[in-house]
Every structure is written in structure tokens, then in C-alpha cells.
Amino acid sequence: MWRDALLVAGKDLRIEGRSHVALNQVLPFALLVLVLFAFALDPDRGVLLTAAAGLYWLAVLFSALLAVQRSQAIESGEGTRDAVRLSGLDPAGVFLGKAGAVALQLLVLEVLLAVGVVVLYGVEPAGLGLLAVTALVATPGMAAAGTLYGVIAAGLRVRETLLPLLLLPVLAPVLIAATRASETALSGVSSGVPAGSWLALLATFTVVYLGFGVVAFGPLLEDA
Amino acid sequence: MVPAVRLRSAVCLLGRFPALAGIDLDVHRGEVVAVEGPNGAGKTTLLRVLAGLAPVTGGHAEVLGIDLRTARRRVRTKVALLSPSGGLYDDLTVADNLRFWARSAGRPPSAAADAMSRLGLDGRLADVPAARLSTGQRRRTALAVLLARDSELWLLDEPHAGLDAAGRDLVDEVVAGAARRGATVLIVSHELERAAALASRTASIVGGRTTAAAGREPLADPEAAGVA
Question: 0.90 exceeded by the pTM?
């Protein structure tokens, strides 16, 4: 399973390295979202600063949606998904590999978006370590859930419009928990609940979706 | 010896549509068999059934000793399917595609290099993304994938389609070579004369049923053909 996961992740990252879709489309989109939030809330700089963590994770969430769609599109070429089914690759390995590649791309994007928040919103980061830990715990969960729902939508004609409808509600707890966990770091405010509790919720989400994906991805790939 | 393929009144229902309505077919190991029939007859579905990609919903179906009704996923690692599209990643180069598919089958990188060399893909073409390949080059790459994976059963869907004379000769050469090495080959083709020249026998499918066989021996034992 792990050998197959590394093989698939390497393949997906190599494809990104050649096509630059994340670099040329997902990253500019995410930065544009940050800029638009700034335009919308700029008259009240206080609101922008207070909401920085939430706006940051919203931008990450929208970017995750695009990254997942791209990850599934890689396999949408005629005959490619059949070739994966015939390949002998462990479906659990395919799931972990695809989720791993998405997670790695999102982590790079999150670093760049954090810089964007600092520059655009004038945030003075107070705890970059906490933000990094939040990202490291939340991102694999987002990627796992995205890969799982991505393969569910992949077999349907309306996949482009269906995936956001399926995925965004599922990722709502991640948005809430990641925002609360990192708001001290980015916004300088606290919800009163210790960041550790939110991190525990994120870790639970990640473990559940990674485990569920390892078990369920094979049957879902059959119907894709 | 267990035959490579044994189908008895095999049925494949896709929803309510009977894509295969009764196929009787025996293919011995190391044999090359051509399958012909009009468009929509069920030829491609037959290959997908044998590859374990489509379900067998009635009758009996066995590939390489594996019962397709109960364990069709197990057969997948033993077969290679050449589809018209080739199943390549457009953004990867020819060499990257070969290496990935060879390694996914547990084959060493040298298997990919050997296959590329045999099909003349080891020069300038090796670094060309699959999206930029011509139809013929794409088919050669897909054939190289089959070579690199070294499967026991080759299922070829229109392997000559869209190729020039040299490309067709190359396909014939690769198929003949695979048969010499002991692989079993099923060829679905509209170019029956060409496929039949490679094959020891020919099967006809019309309306999802085998209707005729020609060649050295019958496609299925007539007595056994009635066995469900």
C-alpha cells in the first residue's frame, strides 16, 4: 500500500510539475480571493484583521476544491481510470497517494497565502508555530475528504458542480476548527476555547477521513 | 491445462441492457484468437468482461482459472487491455508513462526501458508528453506499456485502427512476439483479414452472442456449451 501510495503521489506531483495547474491557476485564484475579501472589508480595517483567520481558511478551502478537481481530472482521460483499475495498484495506496499529493500542494499554497494575509491585511503574526501546526493537522484531512468525495463525483456527468455541493458542507468543521485554532496566531483574538481542543477536533477529522478513505476508496473507484 | 478463457453462455447485463447475451468461447494458453462482428455487437464489452472491468451476470466465465462471477478483480493483475485511447497520462512524457505503468505492475524500470527500445520510443519521443503524440505514436506507447507489464492475457481492442502500414506491421510483430513468449491474445478488430492472419481462430459476435467460429478447432466444445 505504501509503495503504491508513493508511486501515485510521485506521478501526480510530476504531472503538476509539468502542467503547473496549481501554480498558474489555483494559487492566483486563492490570492484573488484574499484580495476580493480585502476589497469587500477594507473600509473597516478592524473587521479585516479580526476575520483574517477565517478569510485565510476560506481561501484555502476554495483552493482545496480546485486542487481536488484537478487531482480527479488527471484520471479522467479516456481509458485512464480503467488502466488504474487494471494496474494492480492497491486502491488504498491510490487513495493515500492522491490525497498526499493534494495535501502537499495545499501546504505550499497555505505558506504563500499566509504571506498574502500578512501583506494584504496588515496582520502581524503572533504565533506562526500554531498556524503551522494547524495547517499540518487540517490539510491532510481536507485532502483525504476531497479525494474521497472527488472519486464519488468522478463517475457522474455533473461532477464539476456536484463536488462543491458534496465537499463544502463536509469541510465546514475543518473551516471552523482551523479558524478557531489559528485565530490567535493571525487575528490576535481568541474564542475562549484553547487551541488544543480545536487541533484535537482537526486531528480526529483527519484520522477518520484517512481511515474511511483507505477502506472505501476501492469500491468507490469501481463505480467512478 | 486450465484454458486461458472459458466462457459458457456468459451474459453481461449493463443496467437492463444485455451487452452480452450468451457467449461461448474457449481460448487455450498461448493462443491468438480474433473476434469480429458489427458495431454494437458486444466485442468491446467482451474484452471488458475478460479484463474484469464489466460484470458477468449470467452463465459461466473463467479467465486464467479465476471465476469472473466471484473474483473478477483478481484477474485484473494478469491481463492487459489495449483500448483505443491507450490509457496514457497526457501530461506525462512517454518515458514517464512507461515507468509508471511498469512499476505499478511491480516490474523494474529496465522493463520500461526494454519496451521503449523494442518499439523505437527510446529516442527523441521518450521526452514528448503523451498529449502531443500522433495516433500511431500513442498506439506504440500503449503497446510498449503492455510489453513492459508482461501480462499473461492480452486483450487488444482495434489495435490496427488509425495506423499507417508501418504501424500495422509493428502491431503484428509485437502480437506475434507476445504469442511466441506464451501470452494468450484476443484481438477485436474490424480489419478481420489482418487480425485473422495473426490468429489461429476467429470468433464472430452478433447481438451479444457468439454465432460462428472458423479455424483449426471449434471455439467451444458443443457439448460443454450447454453447461450453465
Answer: no
